[in-house]
């Protein structure tokens, strides 16, 4: 029973005021226009509910995935092991597993297309994190342009890709070890850069801390950082920015 | 002597190939279309060169500011002490000092307007950092909407502002201590959130580390983090996103 | 206009349903019974609004204090410098400053009495933090029993106070350096212990980290820890527990 | 032979002073009223001796458990592996193993009932720690009310449970990643909150440090923190508070 | 009234058993043979009560010092500022202040002589910490042999002093920066080495952490480490060892 | 099409200026004399492209190795597991695996000889890292002189090797635990010392942090540090220095 | 050719002075009385060469052990796995493996007896580290008195053992988690205390850091700390102190 | 009495062998050719003894400086305050103070010239550290080529200086904040790079830790790192390498 129904009942005298107040107090906040938006967000925007599989049993994962599909939503599962996929696969035979990105995807309907996002890595070992970002971008309607292994140890590789980088609306820079990639790109382009530090490295990289600190301390401006190895978070932020841009483009068309 | 002049001279036989090659090798990269963009960025985009005053003498600061104004550019100085301003004020009597944000601004020409950005703080002690973000946003053409002291210890304050937050294109969330503000906002809105941890607090906040880690580990997606107390960086990233949105709106209009 | 008034108007046909919905969406959550509780909490419970003075100007502090008193509430200001007090003193001549605890207090009405709480310190240098806890306890209606300088380096001092410790309903243990006081007390009593690590010490105490880690790793159970030097937080938690105990005692009386 | 017996014997001339002094010097401190309390605590209060199984062999664990049962005490073993349980099961066939919480329990007699305690988690991956708290609460006579997966990324889930949270006497908040749950709850309720940070997360969560620091730095007051992943400690502190409340209720009844 | 007096009174019928029990409960534990040792330790052993002046007011410091002297004890105050000394000097005109070591000393009676202890430093900047150790040693009856500035950057300086080092019973090695001195000495001598890391250095020495870690990780055996800059602790441990040696020498004489 | 070809075409009128400008903008920077140098570096200098195998699949590793050999370059693979070698061995049957150093090497042509470099370790457990340095040195044309297990716990072992150390042009000092080896050597010789901290140790060595901090804080001058366990980096830097020395020797010969 | 032979040859005119100088420069320092002492230390003092097995192959371990026995020395191997023992056992069938302490021992001749040392632990999980200390003490001629599981959570257990603790010449205190044991003992006894922090615990104990910091920051004086889990180091230091005491006792006898 | 005198006396029969052995045992090692080299190092190589002024009194500093000049050596004082210089200036009126680098220099004789070294900084705030390196280089005979403010935020500035960088024999890269400068340069040149992290920055730079970690984790090879803000150490290492190169050039000339 939602807000309007309650108000109608009060209006029509079918529900006393006291009872209405009780309802309103215990009603899910979503029904007040607040949680409903939240609840309906995925359907409206084509942004699927995301399942963070690590720490969930394969059975839990499969149940959530089946639920989402029943509700007509796309599925994106991150940090999924093979065992998570096997369970999902049984209930959703068309689900796809990406071994490199450790993602499970299942598409009910094509998401609204939001344009290209460049996804760069410093080295080859950063690719799994970058792929998590790329798969997330695809799931959210963006088209990832992969620019892998353009780290600063051989900076000409990066400079050679400058045209591609400059034509992108948003750039996701994934790098471990010294993590300088994001700062160098940030100094070369005029678009928002999403920086994803990775735990790639050894010794004094302290599980990605070195790359994280590099990115936080970069002198280049216009860079937003996410957690270490958080390819999903990097892709999501880039998609969020892309969606804003797409919304504004649409708004411009109507003007 | 720029690239085209060199090529023209080669074409006209006024310059032998060998000499041209020498020129091209030593020519500033900017002249190859690469650094020139960089050099002209501020004029084209209305994004001023920013002077990070900390670690510069007042004299250096004033000289740079005067230079920028001579070149017709706006001036934004951050982390400026009163002594920096006094020096700038002597050469630019119309320069303005913001004591709270520690910024120096001088406007030669109005920047292109890029729309509203919400700037929130968890507490009152976070306001200086938020003001640095707000002044930066203004300098870059955005209109900051200040929502201060809406931290999660009294979450209804934040919920009361939900309409304002939801209507903003970009949100800058500035918070110290536990730093949960950005994550709570990120769970409530569908727009990019720029999170600025501050060093406000004591004890186990370790100079802002607690707020930084909270923001990096947030379960909410769509959040980009900048360095501790980096109000400038937060404002700049938000402006960068706003400019992309404005560009796309303009592009939409032309379609 | 609160929830009941809106529902009454709808019921009486004085307000159409659509307008009611608009009202309900924009109404402060407090009006739904949610924030109002929050807003009225201090008056109902005798727990004053607390002003964290650090990071506030003296003027801001004085304005908030005056406001609270106008609303009939007691005032407790923590981390207050002499300059904060001077400003408050001008508007509230009866306000009291505790130089050791750095607190400002002003009592409009006696708070409900909640019983005794033992406040212990390991050494004499921990006393300012303990006093902040003690003043907070007093402001919230508890009676602090001070047991200072009973640290474990001479454990007989602590054992001598065992009777006092065992008769307390709640114990606040304030200690820096090695911070073992809370664990030793926790092993000797059967009541909740609130542990407050302090930054007292030097060298490898890393600003109170050593005491904090000691307390977190204690083998004794029944200990809740607050932030380093957070005497206020320690006193508040102890008062919160005391109030629960007082409420239950009152409930018992009615049974 | 206890203190009174010795003094009586001295008084009656049955024991010379020298011999009494020897006795008093070597007498266990418990006999002076000190350790005896400690020794008898479990029987009197229904709080079982707790076996921390990690770092004990299965044989040691089983021997201690059998000993406790022989003494008529309940058994609670935490951090127990399957191998610990197998050994206990052989000597106590009615012992119960909770695979999620990693606890072994065996009940000789029902503990004194201490009332309800809410146990909340931010996410599903925090549930094992929360279950350790819940099983501990049950073993100590409390009734845990489980409110799982109400983290702040979707804050309406938490707000929907506000009535339950507000009716609880004590709340245990278990959360990893950003760990903001405890602070948000603390800002909404007027009861003691026990915060248990968990090591759930990755990257810059540094084994639970991020959640721990968030909780220590929370702006909300009335929160006591325990060690990372220390569900037992969180449950024990909540039970300790509940027992104080129950004692006071009983005291009230007698008044 | 001590234990024997109480027992005598009970024996003689001058004190009823109940009253005796009350006495025994509140009597300082020292009277049971436990705290008395503690209380009398300084007088018996010539080890003075030590006043840690940091965090005490000059008045408190002077009062404690006067008290000790009234009880016939020597005075050693560490971490004493000039203001502490001025207050002590007013009540004890013969007290001596060591500006380098920041100590206050006042000798009532010569302590028992315990022999020589070598006190070494890596550099000249470590001398204040070494002097705190040396003054402590003197106050406790040892004769410090100062070997300053023999750090490993010029290892021949250390090797030149090998005879002195090898003839010492105990060695206190004080070093900052890389802190390798203790390990090198430990590899060359066959006596206990007390290692005192100092905060001397800059950059990645992190307030003495580098020297502390070096000493903890030394491959040389027979080294006991104290807190950073804790010259007092280093001197005290060396004196403790020296006293054991002196006791055993005396015991040998009697054999 | 390289720079000269473009300029020739412009000169000969075969290419219009506009088209030449387009070419120059998109031309790889290497063709401007910048990246080409980079690309040809290995062939010219005999320094092989190095494959960091960790994080690469065996197939990727083998493909890169085969490519390098096809281009006539030597192969050095570091952090190689047995599985990497097996894949390389299939395509390059003469490749050699060093189980201790975890390196794969394949020599197409002898590198230019650069002279001797001393490689020292503090203990035997540091040898794998030292061997990585030694194999790297060999691959780059240096002759490693191995001086293992000369740590400072028995400093005479090191002093016995002083002649060898003093005759070396460059010294690589590999040490874990306290890591004092580099500083002691630096105080004894007049040549550049490359310090490689290792993660050998336990407890408070924190994965090599203790050795790293020791080396960074050494009082001895003339020491350059590389990452923890980075034998390759240490060897490479020593070879870089050796090559400079060899170049200068050659230059001297020509003078 | 040793020092005396050289001097004899010079004296007899069989060796010119210049040649003697060359010899003396390259002569092992041991031959100058310096390293020889070192070399002979074990035999003279009964302190065996200790083999740190971790990081050595079983073969290396066995070879060193055999060598030592051939030279008539006792063998003590620490951090030895079963595989190390198996290899040693083949060459030394009478060697003994302690599974709890992970030590290998082989006794050629009884070491000089140095007296009793108390070895205490806070809990049962600390016992392996304590056993490493105890076995080390035995190997060096001390008699360890084991006092296990007397941690401060039930402080009466410790107080009950006060007589034993007070009669010991040296005390080794082994404790993890909060690590307060050493400080409490240090406050109760007048003898040197060797503190060994252990990595026992979880969450915010950070691999033993919490216990280490507690011990470093203890207010009790007379405590020397060794590395985390370094039972060997703790035992060695206690033996070193005991030997000094024994030497002095012997010296006393001769007086 | 030095080694030769002793041997002569033995040879001439003026000293018995036993007495000679005693002498040799106690003789400073320097007299055995070991420490003398050390002692004479400065004179022979033109490398002055360096005075680290921080932690020394002005008087101590002046005395050492005067001593060095008396011995005919050049003086270099680092981390010198104005007060140090004032004291030195009184005894050495020609001494020079560099306010930016905080150095004192006094030249007795021109050092041997060792060639050019490039000294680069990322920003202007790094210049004081770079100047310390430059002054050190000058004092040791090198000619510093200053390339300041070429950080990677505007990478074309660095690329414009590539010719200068490539022609340098050694490069000192000084950078704070993200500290990526060293890695980018290391990827572009084929010469040894000395990396000096600085503490320039704020927030999560943690006193230079961010720049230090970046440099340690750089993917570029051939880079040696020194302590944070250690301009002297960076300059010294670069000079050490330059001297080796100069020695080899001279050796080449003689071939």
Strand order of the largest sheet of chain A: 6-5-7-8-9
**What's the average pLDDT of chain A?**
83
Q: Could you list the spans of chain A in which at least 5 consecutive residues all have pLDDT below 50?
A: 25-46
Shape of chain A: globular
Q: How many strand segments of chain A?
A: 9
Largest sheet of chain A: 5 strands, parallel
How far apart are the first and last residues' alpha carbons of chain A, in Å?
A: 39 Å
Largest interface: C-D, 47 and 45 residues
Count of the domains of chain A:
2
CATH fold description of the largest domain in chain A: Rossmann fold
Radius of gyration of chain A: 22 Å
* SSE pattern of chain A: HHHEHEHEEEHEHHEHEHEH
Summed up, the helix count of chain A is: 11
CATH architecture of the largest domain in chain A: 3-Layer(aba) Sandwich
Oligomer: homooctamer
Summarize the amount of helix of chain A as a percent range: 40-55%
CATH C-level of the largest domain in chain A:
Alpha Beta
Secondary-structure-derived class of chain A: alpha/beta
The amount of beta strand of chain A, in percent, is 15-25%
In short:
With 255 residues, the first copy, chain A, is α/β, with parallel strands linked by helices. The first copy, chain A, is 45% helix and 16% strand. The first copy, chain A, has a five-stranded parallel beta sheet with strand order 6-5-7-8-9. In chain A, strands 1-2-4-3 form a four-stranded mixed beta sheet, sandwiched between helices.
Describe the structure.
Eight copies of one chain form a homooctamer. The longest helix of chain A has 24 residues, at about 230-255. Chain A has helices at about 5-10, 15-25, 35-45, 60-70, 80-90, 125-140, 155-160, 160-165, 180-185, 210-215, 230-255; strands at about 50, 75-80, 95-100, 105, 115-120, 140-145, 170-175, 195, 225. Chain A folds into two domains: about 5-105, no CATH class; about 115-245, Rossmann fold, CATH 3.40.50. Chain A is globular and about 75 Å long. By secondary structure, chain A is α/β, with parallel strands linked by helices. In chain A, the strands form two sheets. In chain A, strands 6-5-7-8-9 form a five-stranded parallel sheet. In chain A, strands 1-2-4-3 form a four-stranded mixed sheet, sandwiched between helices. In chain A, a hairpin with a 4-residue loop joins strand 3 and strand 4 (about 105). At the C-D interface, helix 3, strand 9 and helix 11 of C face helix 3, strand 9 and helix 11 of D.
């Amino acid at each position: 029973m939602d807000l309007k129904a309650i108000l109608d009942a009060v209006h029509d005298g079918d529900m006393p005021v006291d009872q209405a107040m009780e309802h309103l107090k215990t009603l899910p906040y979503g029904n007040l226009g607040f949680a409903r938006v939240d609840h309906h967000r995925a359907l409206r925007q084509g942004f699927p509910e995301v399942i963070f599989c690590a720490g969930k049993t394969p059975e839990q994962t499969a149940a959530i995935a089946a639920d989402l599909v029943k509700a007509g939503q796309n599925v994106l599962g991150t940090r999924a092991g093979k065992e998570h996929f096997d369970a999902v696969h049984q209930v959703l035979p068309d689900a796809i597993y990406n071994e490199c990105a450790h993602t499970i995807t299942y598409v009910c309907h094509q998401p609204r297309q939001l344009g290209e996002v460049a996804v760069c890595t410093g080295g080859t070992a950063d690719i799994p994190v970058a792929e998590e970002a790329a798969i997330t971008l695809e799931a959210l309607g963006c088209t990832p342009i992969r620019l892998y292994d353009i780290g600063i140890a051989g900076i000409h590789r990066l400079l050679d890709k400058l045209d591609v980088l400059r034509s992108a609306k948003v750039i996701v820079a994934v790098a471990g070890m010294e993590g300088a990639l994001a700062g160098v790109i940030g100094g070369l382009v005029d678009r928002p850069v999403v920086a994803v530090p990775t735990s790639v490295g050894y010794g004094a990289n302290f599980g990605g801390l070195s790359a994280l600190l590099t990115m936080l301390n970069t002198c280049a401006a216009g860079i937003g950082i996410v957690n270490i190895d958080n390819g999903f978070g990097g892709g999501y932020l880039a998609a969020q920015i892309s969606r804003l841009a797409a919304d504004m483009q649409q708004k411009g068309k109507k003007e």
